[in-house]
Amino acid sequence: MDKVSFGHEQVSPEEKTRRVRGVFSSVARRYDLMNDLMSGGQHRLWKHAFVRKVRPRKGETILDMAGGTGDIAFRLARAGARVTVADINPEMLAVGVERARLRGIEGLVWAEENAEKLSFAESSFDAYTIAFGIRNVTDIPAALREAHRVLRFGGRFFCLEFSQTQWPGFATLYETYSRRVVPKIGKAVASDEDSYRYLIESIERFPDMPGFARLIEAAGFRNVKAEPILGGLVAIHSGWKI
Ligand code: SAM
Fold first, then answer.
1. Which atom of ligand 1 is nearest to the CA of 130?
2. Ligand 1 and 136: CB distance under 6 A
3. Does the pLDDT at position 218 exceed 80?
4. How far is the CA of 21 from the centre of ligand 1 (A)?
5. Cβ 200 under 6 angstroms from ligand 1
6. For 4-240, CATH number?
7. What whole-number distance in Å separates Cα of residue 25 and Cα of residue 234?
8. Share of the chain above pLDDT 90, in %
9. Of the candidate ranges 147-161, 170-184, 198-212, the one whose mean pLDDT is the lowest
10. Are 145 and 117 contacting, i.e. CB atoms less than 8 angstroms apart?
11. Does the Cβ of 32 fall within 6 Å of ligand 1?
């Protein structure tokens, strides 16, 4: 792979992975608070809708990739699933472990993993989830192929990610908000304008719903669907390994 985008900059793939790691190391301690502030608490509703779609079953094995501080994993585990939370960033995982302890959520497996090259054997999981993680991965097709490999036949793939809203007025409003306001909140609350600027730029560069659906299909998934939330500001993509 030649140069890849880090926000609006072009950098080498290794440099992107290094910088993304830096962003999440820097935001880890304030990540949950910032999610609430930046989305006005909306991310909780999106995550709730996402887990409803996954329909976790008691006893099934789920890999929550780029699971960070555990928001999705906690919801899946409450439904009785056996969840592995995997993330490339040990600082995000450490915050997650502490949050799980404070909430009395037991039985989660926490693993430091790069989504592009997983250490799990093939056919290890019944479902794979990734929420607000895939756009940060340097080689997205490689991560999707790995998702396909570690799922058993009949396994489900689910991705929650920002996309592009099709509601015109709302798109303009959101663009102004995200470009002008979010980095300022990042500066004021976390003294970290640059990390939040990257997070917004990475949203702007991510493929639209049909474009991302094509990448999921190219990794081998079938019955791929994209379901928009708020006109596509956020989208849930799903697919089957069959
Ligand atoms: N899923 C959590 C949530 O919804 O709150 C965390 C999302 S957070 C925006 C993105 C996460 O992706 C970070 O924890 C980051 O460390 C992780 N990440 C970025 N690149 C990754 C990679 N190549 N492999 C695994 N995790 C990665």
1. 1
2. yes
3. yes
4. 9
5. no
6. 3.40.50.150
7. 24
8. 68
9. 170-184
10. no
11. no
State if residue 159 touches ligand 1 by the CB under 6 angstroms criterion.
no
| Cβ contact 232:209 at 8 Å | yes
46-55, 133-142, 148-157, 175-184: which has the minimum mean pLDDT?
175-184
**What's the predicted TM-score (pTM) here?**
0.94
CB atoms within 10 A of CB 41: 10
Q: Is the CB of residue 34 below 6 angstroms from any atom belonging to ligand 1?
A: no
Q: How far apart are CA 179 and CA 106, in angstroms?
A: 39
pLDDT in tens, 27-69: 898 888 888 888 888 899 999 999 999 999 999 999 999 999 9
Cα gap 199→196, rounded to integer Å: 5
Q: Mention every residue, 6+ apart, whose C-beta is less than 8 A from residue 174.
A: 165, 233
Pocket test of ligand 1: the residue of 92, 99, 129, 162 to mutate, having most ligand atoms within 8 Å of its CB, is: 92
